[in-house]
Amino acid sequence: RFAIHENGTWTNPRAITSGRRLMLNWADSPSVIFLPDGRLAAHWLERHDSAGAYGIRIAFARDPDASWITAFASTRPTTEGYEGFVSLGASGQEVYASFLDHSTPVTALRVARFTSDGRLLDDRVVVADVCSCCQTAIATAGGAPIVAYRGHTQDEVRDIRAVRLREGRGRRPRLVARDNW
Known about the structure:
Elements: E1 5-6, E2 9-10, E3 31-34, E4 40-47, E5 54-61, E6 69-73, E7 83-91, E8 94-101, E9 108-115, E10 120-127, E11 137-141, E12 144-150, E13 160-166, E14 169-170, E15 174-177
Antiparallel strand pairs: 1-2, 3-4, 4-5, 5-6, 7-8, 8-9, 9-10, 11-12, 12-13, 13-14, 13-15
């Protein structure tokens, strides 16, 4: 559900989705954003049939009162894996969703790219080995999205890194902060 703060007050909550498979995770929460053209994008988590596995759903609506149309449903996690820790952002006419893919033993940073009406343009691994439990973040600078995430090394060091995207492809990741976590 979501509500909008307008003229100093909140609107009545509106449903995006409902169902028995919705996944509750204190560290991995749903989100909704307004896009530059007035449309909205949202994401949430859903459990799969197998124990412990969950994935993401991304939906779009043409305005706050419109029906939500699911544009992306992850299917990679099939046993104990997950996809989550999603961040949504927009750049020009494109919408980006950065997220962790822990459907294999090594967690990857993926980015799905959409048109503002929800058409999937691509979904790809941007960084092959990242921390498995930290939120991603996405912002736009100089007309291109930048994804921040917690990296991962062979020595189990997890520093904050960022990668600039061009047409959904990641450039060379850069160290943002060496916190040696």
